[in-house]
Amino acid sequence: MSGGLFAHALLRETGRPVTAEDAAQLQRGHAAAYARLVGQVQPLYEDPADLLRHLDEVGVRTAE
Question: pTM for the full model?
Fold first, then answer.
């Protein structure tokens, strides 16, 4: 998830009013954490089709 999407999702979930500087700080923190951890990120499924099948099995709607 991008820093912008992360910030918007977090703010939507908390319902907290946020200034432009708050949002910028969240994005900077997200970017720093991502840069620090990117080498540890692994896909949930090697084959994207397996992921789509799993999501279908558990009732998550997707677009293909």
Answer: 0.52
